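Technical annex, item 7. During the second reporting period the consortium partners agreed on a shared format for inverse folding records so that results from different sites could be compared directly. Each record opens with the tokenized structure and is followed by the designed sequence. A conforming record, contributed by the partner at site C, is shown below for reference.
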């Protein structure tokens, strides 16, 4: 436990502390860095188990992070009780089932946007006044490597994570004058329950999280890397090899990397059946329209120029 680290003994709020990366961050910040952690999640049993393990250094509030009024009530309560808040870690989030965007209901779209993006904005808005009073003010937003290389069938998840990245990078400039640092963390695959939430009980998602289990890092390692980045006050944090590879591809050849990622996924539907709904839809559409992909690709600029005189939409 290094007392020379600015993180030592800080008061930290962590969302999504009941499992995965958030739980590991909580354990390490309390046990190794003597922090006081106020955790946020919904699962009472898991929160109570953490309280039993960590004692007075940990407390929690149960609410849905996509509820703005819950955030306001939470910060008002902290303020009234005279709590000092140094660090806010917006970690909680949800994944989407692999699917074509056109197959998603607006209800699902709104749920993912509210949980992954608005919650971050609500949290920062609610706690900035308290964080500004701290000499050690710091904000960590957990985005994803899909903010750098968005993947097929993950349109809304990738969009929310990309927005969290832009929000964080802009916020870091807003807050520089207050001495408040911001880290935006973009992990690649981490072995947590996140991917298991896709499993509707039919076993189709199993291969998906088996793949994550084989290439991902542990939540413990991810938490270590995040704390290290916080210590160094790093804005852009890529965790780990897979995220760096994605970043490299998008720097060197963004269009090609995007295209090849989709291609690789579409030819891996046998290995990862969870990808199938994304590409099945495309195959059906192809038959429905009566055009082969080859024919579509053969359309040249000249053939497109032959627009009907009345205009494409006129009868
Ligand atoms: N695992 C990965 O491979 C990976 C990769 C890139 C980015 N990430 C990001 O890392 C973050 C943590 O993910 P994880 O892998 O640790 O996931 P996880 O194991 O599924 O944990 C998610 C946590 O968020 C909480 N949560 C979810 N929705 C909530 C809501 N509406 N209100 C309050 N709490 C909520 C859950 O608690 P309750 O169920 O108790 O509410 C849980 O503690 C997420 O933002 C995720 O997008 C993960």
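Designed sequence (site C submission):
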């Amino acid at each position: 436990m290094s007392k020379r680290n600015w993180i030592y003994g800080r008061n930290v709020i962590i969302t999504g502390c009941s499992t995965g990366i958030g739980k590991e961050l909580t354990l390490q910040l309390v046990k190794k860095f003597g922090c006081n952690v106020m955790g946020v999640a919904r699962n009472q049993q898991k929160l109570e188990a953490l309280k039993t393990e960590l004692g007075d250094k940990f407390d929690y509030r149960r609410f849905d992070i996509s509820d703005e009024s819950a955030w306001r009530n939470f910060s008002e309560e902290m303020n009234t009780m005279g709590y000092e808040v140094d660090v806010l870690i917006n970690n909680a989030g949800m994944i989407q089932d692999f699917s074509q965007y056109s197959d998603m209901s607006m209800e699902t779209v709104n749920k993912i946007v509210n949980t992954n993006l608005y919650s971050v904005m609500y949290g920062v808005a609610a706690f900035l006044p308290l964080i500004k009073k701290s000499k050690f003010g710091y904000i960590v937003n957990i985005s994803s490597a899909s903010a750098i290389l968005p993947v097929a069938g993950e349109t809304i998840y990738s969009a929310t994570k990309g927005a969290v990245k832009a929000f964080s990078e802009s916020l870091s400039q807003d807050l520089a004058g207050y001495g408040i640092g911001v880290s935006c963390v973009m992990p690649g695959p981490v072995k947590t329950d996140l991917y298991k939430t896709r499993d509707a009980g039919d076993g189709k998602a199993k291969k998906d999280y088996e793949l994550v289990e084989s290439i991902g890092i542990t939540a413990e390692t991810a938490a270590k890397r995040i704390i290290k980045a916080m210590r160094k006050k790093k804005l852009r944090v890529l965790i780990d090899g897979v995220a760096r590879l994605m970043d490299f591809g998008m720097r060197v050849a963004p269009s090609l990397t995007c295209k090849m990622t989709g291609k690789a996924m579409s030819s891996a539907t046998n290995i990862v059946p969870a990808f199938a709904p994304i590409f099945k839809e495309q195959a059906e559409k192809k038959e429905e329209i009566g055009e082969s992909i080859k024919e579509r690709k053969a359309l040249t600029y000249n053939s497109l120029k032959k627009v009907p005189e009345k205009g494409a939409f006129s009868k």
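The mean pLDDT is 90. The chain has one domain: 11-288. All partners now use this format for quarterly exchanges.
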